[in-house]
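Project outcomes to date are best conveyed with an example. Our students and postdoctoral researchers have been running inverse folding experiments weekly, and each run begins with a structure described purely in tokens. The record below, which covers 176 residues, was selected by the lab manager from last quarter's runs and is presented without edits.
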């Protein structure tokens, strides 16, 4: 796995062995950040269910001011911290070892990226409701193309969907 573009382009990231963490494929990450390009500069980006931290690190590489990483696996958090240290990004990152719901209630970001394990479909609703309550302006959900998240969660309304193979990105923005 590598950083695709920006300040740390082509730098390799450490990943976790085994199948417990499903990294966002490079091509899907590239698509995501092509869509986010006009908004990523100087934002606070939250990578929820962060795994190796590749998505949040990509955001930092492309100009995000700060990134918040939320991951409950201690092994994955160790990998995130190692990746941040290798790139000198510790001062621009905050890493939480916790279930997402407990951090989402108090964390604030301009853009949130949610990628819960596909089999944990209840996590989508819990996380989206927390993001609505936190008044996050833009939320992107990565999910299986066989799962369809709701059209709306509170004031967060779906406005775009991108499918690539079995992966799908659904974009929500806060309605006025």
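After processing, the design step wrote out the following sequence:
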């Amino acid at each position: 796995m590598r950083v695709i573009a920006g300040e740390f382009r082509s730098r390799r990231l450490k990943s976790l062995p085994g199948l417990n963490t499903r990294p966002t494929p490079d091509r899907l990450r590239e698509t995501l950040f092509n869509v986010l390009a006009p908004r990523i500069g100087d934002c606070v980006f939250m990578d929820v269910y962060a795994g190796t931290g590749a998505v949040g690190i990509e955001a930092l590489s492309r100009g995000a001011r700060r990134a918040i990483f939320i991951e409950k696996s201690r092994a994955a958090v160790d990998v995130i911290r190692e990746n941040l240290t290798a790139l000198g990004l510790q001062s621009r990152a905050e890493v939480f070892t916790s279930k997402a719901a407990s951090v989402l209630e108090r964390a604030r970001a301009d853009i949130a990226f949610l990628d819960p394990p596909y089999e944990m479909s209840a996590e989508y609703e819990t996380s989206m409701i927390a993001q609505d309550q936190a008044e996050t302006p833009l939320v992107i959900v990565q999910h299986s193309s066989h799962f369809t998240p709701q059209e709306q969660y509170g004031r967060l309304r779906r406005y775009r969907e991108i499918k690539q193979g079995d992966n799908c990105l659904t974009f929500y923005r806060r309605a006025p």
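The chain has five helices and eight strands. Residues 26-174 form a domain with the Rossmann fold fold (CATH 3.40.50.150). The training component of this project remains on track.
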